[in-house]
Amino acid sequence: IEGEGAQVTEPWKPYLPYITHLFVFDGVTEVKPALFAGANNLVTALLPYTISIPDSMFAASSLTYIDVEQHSIGNYAFSNCKNLIKISLPDCLESIGENAFDDCLNLKEVHISSLNKWLNMDFEKYYSNPLAYSQNLYINDKLVNEIVIPEGVENIKKYAFINCLNIEKITLPKSIKSIGYDAFAGCKN
User: What is the pLDDT of residues 8-38, one digit of tens each?
Assistant: First the structure.
């Protein structure tokens, strides 16, 4: 997809079942919701960091890996992506919409680069957090089995580390005042 401004037409729609690669170029500032929902053969998607991933953008598509560079992920953006096995989330990510990863049953790895940024994420619903299915959290490409929450952190939000089966130890600082609902539910110990 190339051009300037918001993408408002979908000339490829009749070919959606045959599309395997998606490239959105820098001039595009916005794409429509559900633009590639149901793209059964889509394996690669590259989008500029300047746009947001809208609601249902890749729902029920066949993506296996996505390296998110955007500031926000819309509601149901990756829901029902049964082939999605790995996702990388950037420090610039500010929000993840409701049920963004609902039914991503094969998601094995969630990669983040900053624990502090993760602690500040708001997950309105359980399935907004990719860890709901993933079980494996990587920080700076290293699988973590121990989390040390930095001193000064006062709150851990709900669902922050839900279902992280690889986490065996969590160290909390004295500065913690509250831990959100199910923040550590499903962790190994």
Answer: 677 778 888 899 998 888 888 888 899 899 9
Write out pLDDT tens, residues 113-148: 888 888 888 888 889 999 988 889 999 999 998 999
d(CA 17, CA 19): 6
Structural tokens at position 179: 């831990």
Following DSSP, what letter does each residue of 115-165 receive, concatenated? HHHHHT---SSGGGSTHHHH-EEEETTEE-SEEEPPTT--EE-TTTTTT-T
**pTM (2 decimals)?**
0.88
The C-alpha atoms of residue 116 and residue 32 are separated, in whole angstroms, by 31
The DSSP 8-state label assigned to residue 187 in this structure reads -
* pLDDT class of 189 with cuts at 50, 70, 90: low
Q: Read off the amino acid at residue 126.
A: Y
For 65, 78, 126, 180, the CA distances from 97, given in Å and listed in that order, are: 19, 10, 11, 18
Alpha helices in the chain (DSSP H): 115-119, 131-134
Please answer whether residues 122 and 100 qualify as being in contact, where contact means their C-beta atoms are separated by less than 8 angstroms.
no
H-run or E-run covering 5: strand 5-6
Question: How many other C-beta atoms can be found within 10 angstroms of the C-beta atom of residue 77?
Answer: 29
Question: 11 or 149, which is more confident?
Answer: 149
CA 181 to chain centre: 20
